Amino acid sequence: MPMLYTIPGRPIPWARAGYNRETACIYDRQKMERIQQKLLLEHQHGANPFYEGPLFLFMTFYMPINKSFSIRKKAEMEGTHHFCKSDIDNLQKWVMDLSSNVLFKDDCQICDLSVRKRYSNNPRTVFSLLELDNHGNENHRDENFTEEETKIITSFTNQS
After folding, report:
1. Distance, first Cα to last Cα, the chain
2. Contact 124, 8 (CB under 8 A)
3. Cα within 13 Å of Cα(151), Cβ side
4. What CATH architecture is 4-15+49-158?
5. b/e string for 25-43 if b means 16 or more Cβ within 10 A?
6. CA quadruple 107, 113, 114, 115: dihedral sign
7. Any residues with CB less than 8 A from the CB of 27 and at least 6 apart, and which?
8. Structural domain boundaries of the chain?
9. Is 138 helix (H, G, I), strand (E, B) or coil?
10. CA–CA separation, 55 vs 53, rounded Å?
């Protein structure tokens, strides 16, 4: 069954490893965030099996609105396109890396991808995975979607 995964808080873009010149060691700048968010995804996924085969990944990144804006301006910006930093490719790479070995075996299984960035007073990352058959058609484990899942999947598929 397609599940809706939510990572609360400001979306985190993927960042390259750091390098310590004194010790000549490479280190992961995002180690703690990665551990925390992987645990959150494991909890949300529960005992469900890995997604197998080709997958369609739908993602929406709800980016924070500047706190200095007036209440009226914040209300106007809610849900509008976010076209500032962080880059959308680094945001989606972070989610795909987090999901590997938690929701699916490897991110090479992602065949189709739909990614959006929007402003929101409630920053978060929301995504869902759909299994595809080998012909690119949706292959749902269960046709009984919740109202929230149906709304999200419909909004993703209607944006094309």
Report:
1. 23
2. yes
3. 4
4. 2-Layer Sandwich (3.30)
5. eeeeebeeebeebbebbee
6. positive
7. 17, 18, 19, 20
8. 4-15+49-158
9. strand
10. 6
- Is the pTM above the cut of 0.85? no
Single-letter code of the amino acid located at 113: L
Rg of the Cα trace of the chain?
17
Tens-digit pLDDT profile for the chain (160 aa)? Answer: 568 899 999 998 887 777 888 888 887 777 888 889 899 999 999 988 889 889 999 999 999 999 899 999 999 999 899 998 889 999 999 999 999 999 999 999 998 898 999 999 999 999 999 888 765 555 544 444 556 656 666 665 554 3
